[in-house]
Amino acid sequence: MAARGNYKFLDKFSWYVPGVRSLFILLLWFIIGAVLGSIVTVICTVTLGIEAGTVYGSLLSYPIMFIPPMVYAGVKSASLSMDHAGVKLDSNNFSPLGGLLCVLLVSLMTLSAGFSLEPVTSLLPQMPDYLKQLFKDLTSGNIWLNLLMVSIFAPICEEWLCRGMVLRGLLASKVKPYVAILVSALFFAFIHLNPWQAIPAFVLGCLFGYVYYKTGSLKLTMLMHFVNNTFALVVGHIDSFKEMESWKEVFPARTYWILVAACAMLMILCVLAFKKITLTKPEGNMDAVPSIFDTHED
Q: What's the whole-model pTM score?
């Protein structure tokens, strides 16, 4: 029976396709979740002390932020599923590249983008000491807890919201694709709440958005997010790199700029490779989902 996919987590949200106005409601639920998460962090800090409270508070508060918008979207999707068609959050439109080549391309695209963006982010003022300490606390402790938050929670939750909800909703609402991708990338940058993360997040968000537009695959954008975060986390746990603020400290100047140029070129080539995927419709390669009533009739 075609309805078997309803048991998959992402499929439960297929019938809620937020338009522009609905996205503000979703944002409101996210803000409510952020407030609840902040309360949990404060409780953990008071109970466990600043260092442990920051780590465990963040580990708990991060997924809590996304619970209100997920519950809201799930309830709305369930109420619409009986008599409204939907749009899948996760499709598999990889032809003619194929899934394995897409995985390789997005991984290379993400790593090369991260390196080639460094000269831009280095132009920003120095990060405040309190923010440096916060990131250090979040990434220098137990690596398994760090991986859970940075490499599992973040890719799943943020991609669900920024690509699965915001971008999918805008594309399905017939917003021009480049506008939809830019808006979803701005949304992605906004939830990082500081310019040192927001600027690279915006550029990466544009890349994630383009890949989603061409393939409809939330799995691929989650993978890109995972690769970016996990690489940064692993580098941060290598003793010789712990105090590093820029790759300029690792490579000679000439080698550094050659690598920046090479990574920028590799990123562009990876993006161009996705042009080979033909769009099935102007709003992107996201598969339609019939209403449950229509599915059962078939």
A: 0.90
